[in-house]
Amino acid sequence: MVLTQSQFNTLLIPLITHHFEVGQNRVPRMRTQLFSEKRSTLAQENGTGMGGMTPESWNAYASTGKKGKLDVDQLYTQTYTHQEYPVQLEIKKNLILNDQYGKIGDLIRRAGISAEQKMEIDAASLLTNAFSASFLWSDAKALCATDHPQSPTVTAGTFSNKGTSALTADVVSTTRVAMMRFKDDKGTEIGLMPNELWVPPELEDTARKIVASVLDPESANNAINPQAGRWTVKPWMRLTDTNNWFMADSTWRQEVANWYVRETTTPMIVAETTTEIVYEFKLHYSFGVDDWRWIYGHEVA
I need a surface site. Which of 169, 211, 270, 278 has the fewest CB within 10 A? Predict the structure, then answer.
């Protein structure tokens, strides 16, 4: 059986898909460690920060004989609008005619590398823009701010998850306590147990000295290091400021930090001439957070 040109081109799709995925896997991936990845079948998704339930409600029956009522207020709604990122890649037909499939593989792998780099840079922007007034979330504040409102209905008082201190053992200790004191909209301490330090590569050694030594690295008296065993250090090359760093609670992060995939990236032939075949690839996703109560950032001068 003689293959038509169209059938021949279609047979390249599995080859292209394979090399594209190989390229993607060559890029260190932190996106899936920061976000909970989810599939979406809608044009957009809506996430809502959920308020707390007053613990005193559980005491009502013992004191009044009436069952207490658990009520919860919705906090701010975060809209995730999926964005499309289509690109084209031209492959010269003479690479196929001259049996240069290795060259084709190289091109496609580089396309996969580029796609993964794009998504990693976008993912890291959650942290690189964490202090910027140009990147606001559902409560109209930056991710890390000193004046988060309590809720849409409670206007008195604000919360802070932003500091300005350099990374040291003492600051890790005080920031950890500050996060453990985070409150919900009812004024009840949430119960955070921060266990991650997100740092640029320039601060990785400092972070590991702080958290990995059983003994206090700054003491000659064999003092116990209370930070030992509490932390996972997350160095990320995409964090471009070499001084800023972040503390996070992994459990709450997984609850509120979302990455929605609208379509799986699949190559498609869109044009063909006598000299080339044009393929298209498309990334289609959105990302963000429903709430800020999982992270504390230090914007260090």
Answer: 270
Largest CA distance in the chain: 87
Structural domains of the chain in order of their starting residue, each with its CATH number: 5-49+81-298 (3.90.1690)
Half-sphere exposure of 38 (CA within 13 A, CB side): 22
The pTM assigned to this predicted structure is 0.88
Q: Which tens digit of pLDDT belongs to each residue from 33-56? A: 999 999 999 999 999 886 777 777
User: What is residue 226's DSSP assignment?
Assistant: T
Tokens of 280: 């298209």
Alpha-carbon distance of 105 to 17, in angstroms, equals 10
Residue 21 has a CB neighbour count (10 Å cut-off) of 16
- Listed in order, strand segments (DSSP E) in the chain are 36-39, 44-50, 74-81, 83-92, 148-149, 158-159, 162-163, 196-199, 232-235, 245-248, 257-263, 268-272, 276-289, 295-298
> Side-chain half-sphere of 186: how many Cα atoms within 13 Å?
16
